[in-house]
């Protein structure tokens, strides 16, 4: 069963090459097979293909025909030397390439010029609501939205295998961490800090890893597309803002696998964090797919007033998993009015209330209405 993806690569590939990145098993290969079939494809996970191209990178160029307009190279990070050939063919032949990979680390280190302008980077994650509106929200909050998990009758088994094998194998394959045991302890702690403002010293203490190494590990999770550090909106108004980042794993189901806890009861802090992660994932995916120049931050002042997300400086979004929003839930949205760097044009609480309403200038928005507005390009 294939579920249509919403990322608009087909249109981009009409005029440009694309570097198509994303964590493993997010559906890049399925997308290409169903929505962007190439004229020629090379899968570097296949030993015979890898060995042939490693021995002679010019083979692709030498095999070109007039019919070849779109070429796919799968898992390009396994053979960065091919990027030189890709560069030449883009410049001289007008060939469009769709280059897939699960990590940008080696490519950034060795071929940043191609990444900078000749192949547009696009990142695919798990499913978003617009792709799977029929899937129960609670299931998504508990198990996440990775394609093999969404389609599985045993989602916990799928997630445990993924977290136990793919995440650590990804790091080992990139030779980015020599101490897998330390990195595994860090992963568990990072999962516990998911959606929270990260205190590197606390994570280091609990993971029994030096704080300097913890910072490197978080950076590694970003480079391997396994997580995102969400930076705070810096303001100079009356309310001084904090400077530390919040962290979000790429998938909430992976978080629950790493912590070993799939229990998710309404009204608990864990449920609230999962609901916040769901809203972050929708915002982050929309931004990556349709509006890469849009900025996403959070805001918190030194007195602990906080707004979960600030969309492009102008939309303030608070997330509450409650089915009835109270005045205490909008304190952060009120406080942000006292910073004057950017005009906040819209303030909202995304929640599980059944109907839209207003509390003064604050919109109380059911989550279904919010994601519909987002994916119909009507958030701002």
Describe this structure in words.
- The chain has 17 helices and 13 strands.
- A hairpin with a 3-residue loop joins strand 9 and strand 10 (about 315-320).
- It has 2 domains: about 10-125, Rossmann fold (3-Layer(aba) Sandwich), CATH 3.40.50; about 135-375, no CATH class.
- It has a 6-stranded mixed β-sheet with strand order 8-9-10-11-13-12. The protein has a 5-stranded parallel β-sheet with strand order 2-3-4-1-5. The chain has a two-stranded antiparallel sheet with strand order 6-7.
- The protein is about 40% helix and about 15% strand.
- Helix 10 crosses helix 14, helix 11 (about 180-190) crosses helix 12 (about 200-205) and helix 12 packs across helix 13.
- The radius of gyration is 22 Å and the shape is globular.
- By secondary structure, it is α/β, with parallel strands linked by helices.
- The two termini are about 35 Å apart.
Instruction: List how many beta strands DSSP finds.
Output: 13
Report mean pLDDT, rounded to a whole number: 89
Order of helices and strands: HEHEHHEHEHHEHHHHHHEEHHEEEHEEEH
Amount of beta strand:
15-25%
Integer-rounded radius of gyration: 22 Å
- Placed side by side, the strands forming the largest sheet appear as 8-9-10-11-13-12
Number of domains: 2
């Amino acid at each position: 069963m294939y579920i249509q993806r919403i990322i608009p690569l087909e249109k981009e590939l009409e005029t440009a090459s694309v570097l198509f990145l994303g964590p493993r098993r997010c559906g890049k290969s399925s997308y290409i097979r169903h929505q962007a079939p190439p004229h020629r494809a090379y899968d570097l996970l296949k030993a015979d293909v890898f060995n042939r191209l490693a021995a002679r990178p010019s083979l692709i160029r030498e095999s070109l025909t007039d019919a070849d307009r779109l070429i796919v190279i799968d898992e390009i990070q396994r053979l960065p030397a091919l990027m030189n050939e890709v560069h030449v063919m883009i410049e001289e032949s007008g060939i469009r390439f769709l280059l897939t990979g699960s990590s940008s680390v080696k490519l950034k280190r060795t071929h940043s010029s191609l990444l900078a302008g000749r192949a547009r980077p696009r990142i695919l994650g798990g499913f978003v609501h617009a792709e799977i509106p029929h899937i129960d929200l609670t299931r998504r909050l508990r198990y996440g939205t990775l394609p093999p998990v969404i389609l599985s009758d045993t989602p916990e088994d799928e997630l445990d295998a993924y977290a136990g094998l793919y995440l650590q194998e990804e790091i080992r394959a990139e030779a980015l961490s020599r101490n897998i045991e330390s990195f595994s302890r860090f992963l568990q702690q990072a999962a516990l800090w998911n959606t929270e403002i990260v205190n590197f010293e606390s994570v280091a203490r609990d993971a029994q890893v030096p704080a300097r190494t913890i910072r490197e590990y978080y950076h590694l999770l970003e480079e391997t597309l396994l997580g995102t550090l969400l930076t705070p909106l810096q303001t100079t108004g009356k309310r001084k803002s904090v400077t530390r980042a919040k962290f979000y794993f790429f998938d909430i189901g992976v978080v629950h696998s790493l912590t070993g806890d799939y229990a998710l009861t309404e009204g608990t802090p864990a449920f609230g964090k999962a609901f916040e992660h769901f809203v972050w994932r929708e915002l982050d995916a929309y931004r990556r797919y349709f509006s890469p120049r849009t900025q996403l931050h959070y805001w918190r002042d030194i007195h602990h007033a906080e707004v979960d997300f600030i969309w492009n400086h102008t939309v303030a979004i608070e997330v509450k998993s409650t089915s009835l929003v109270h005045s205490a839930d909008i304190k952060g949205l009120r406080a942000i009015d006292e910073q004057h760097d950017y005009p906040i044009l819209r303030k909202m609480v995304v929640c599980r209330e059944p109907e839209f309403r207003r509390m003064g200038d604050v919109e109380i928005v059911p989550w279904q209405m919010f994601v519909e507005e987002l994916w119909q390009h009507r958030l701002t």
